[in-house]
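Please review the protein record below. Tell me whether the encoded fold seems credible here:
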Amino acid sequence: MKRSLPLLLLALSLCAALPARAASSRWTQLGPAGHGQGEILSLASDPSRPDRVFAGLFGGGIARSGDGGRSWRSFGEGLRIPVINWIVVHPALGRLVFASDGVFLYRSLNDGRTWEPSSLRGVRALAADPRDPNVAWAAAFGGLYRTRDRGTTWERVQANLPRGYGATSVTISPADPRRMYVMVTAPSGFGLWTTADGGRTWVRRNRARAVLGIVLQADLHDARTVYLLNFREIQRSRDTGQTFELFFNTGAAGSPLDLQPRFLALDPLDPAVAYVSFAFSGIGDGLYRTTDGGRTWRLLSAGLPESFVLTALAVSSEGTVLLGLETFGSLAVYRSADRG
């Protein structure tokens, strides 16, 4: 596994030397890679510096670009995990970066150059306060945790949440950081909880039979709107989780095939624009875009390979879309500055 990392980083570093795609293409291919080098499992853009992009690699490394993905450098000193499933760049302090494999949590205080482990374990998701550089929240097997010192220490949040609960997903509204949503597992049942006062008090919104496959994502523009992703569809609530409506599934996309949504990315500049990556059952992956708030969806294919596995999806604060793709064993990073 470790032998694959240099090949992957070498492929990423060759991005600047690659010829541009045809003028008709809506996507720029930033780097085909060799074979057997692993995957990019996660992508994250710094909200305050949109050209700064982090890539989490299969093999445990971190690659960082300072020019929107054209060139990359390896920064993984101190990381001791085999995969990087997600990366969070703190929106209020770009040099503070968190990374995890879904169990172990690491922190970097210097733009990802060096990393140190956290004492917190079983972390499934992390959300950073967009207005306070010291505060972040982590959903973990042991519950919901908060740091007030940039990840040095973590305290478990109890408030009026169920006794003995765990948390599988957490999200903060950028429109109003006091509004948060967390998916809770507890002996009394599973469900969505929300707070409007920064975590001092919580209200249970709905019950769920199982939550391990559910991911919460707050809308970037409306604090009352939250999205719920599971293996079959994406639902949206416009009333802080009291009721939900269908946002995306096979029928909404107008596809005769069985679509399984994998990632949701929202456009920070236009509340009506969103992207959904999906897996075709037994066929491959694809990418849909809506420009009318989910009423209609368009399959994006111009400039992308005919068949690929989409391993990562991110949208920068300037609206640039970044994809991590694997095609027949080789890696490529694709970028679109015109929404695909």
User: Anything to note?
Assistant: The chain is about 5% helix and 45% strand. Confidence is low (pLDDT under 50) at residues 1-24, 32-37.
